[in-house]
Amino acid sequence: MRLTTKGRFAVTAMVDLAIRGGQEPVTLASISERQKISLSYLEQLFGKLRKHNIVESVRGPGGGYYLARPSATISVADIISAVDEPVDATKCGGKGDCHDDKECITHDLWMGLNKALHKYLAAVTLQQLVENNGKTVTEAVPVAIRRRAAKPEMASV
Fold first, then answer.
1. Sequence-separated (6 or more) residues with CB below 8 Å from residue 117
2. For position 68, which CATH number holds?
C-alpha cells in the first residue's frame, strides 16, 4: 500500500490554499510556485476537488480558488477521496477475490488496516493541519499507537 503523489500533492495544495485563502482567491500558479508542484497537475487535481465541492473557483483577472466550506469540515480523507486516490492495503481492492476468486488468508488483516487508516485520515481536518503548520496531528492517532511509538523496542536476547 502506498499513497501516491496524487494524494500527497492534493493535501499539500489544500493546506497551502487554507493558509493563504481568505478574502481573495488563491491562484494555482502561486501554489505551484510555493509547493513546487506542476501547474498542469494542480489543474487536474483542483478540477476533481471542485467537482466534489471542496473548492470553488473564480474566473478572470484576480481569479483563483478558495475553500467551498470551512476548513474544520474538510478532512484529509475527503481530499484524498476527491482526487480518486485509493488507499488500500488489500491485493483485491477490498473485493475479496485476491486468490482464485476467494479471500486470501490475510484479507481481514489488510481490511482492518484500511479501516484504521481511513479512520485516521477522516479524523484529521484541514484546519488542524493549518494550525499545526502541516505537521502530524497526534490527537487523531489512537493513544495505544502513540505509546508504542514512544517506547523503544527491547531487543530479544
1. 87, 89
2. 1.10.10.10
Per-residue pLDDT reduced to its tens digit, 29-76: 999 999 999 999 999 999 999 999 999 999 988 889 999 999 999 999
CA atoms of 137 and 120, how far apart (whole Å)? 10
- 114: in domain: no
- Of the candidates 79, 103, 91, the one whose C-alpha atom is nearest the C-alpha of residue 18 is 79
Q: What is the pLDDT of residues 69-113, one digit of tens each?
A: 999 999 999 999 999 777 777 777 666 676 677 777 888 888 888
Residue bearing cell 481492492: 93
Radius of gyration (C-alpha) of the chain in whole angstroms = 18
Tell me the whole-structure pTM to 2 decimals: 0.78
Q: How many domains does the chain have?
A: 1
CA–CA distance, 71 with 154 (Å, rounded to integer): 41
Residue range(s) defining the domain that contains residue 71: 5-86
Q: What are phi and psi of 110, to 5 degrees?
A: -70, -35
Closest listed residue to residue 106, CA positions, set 119, 118, 92, 120: 92
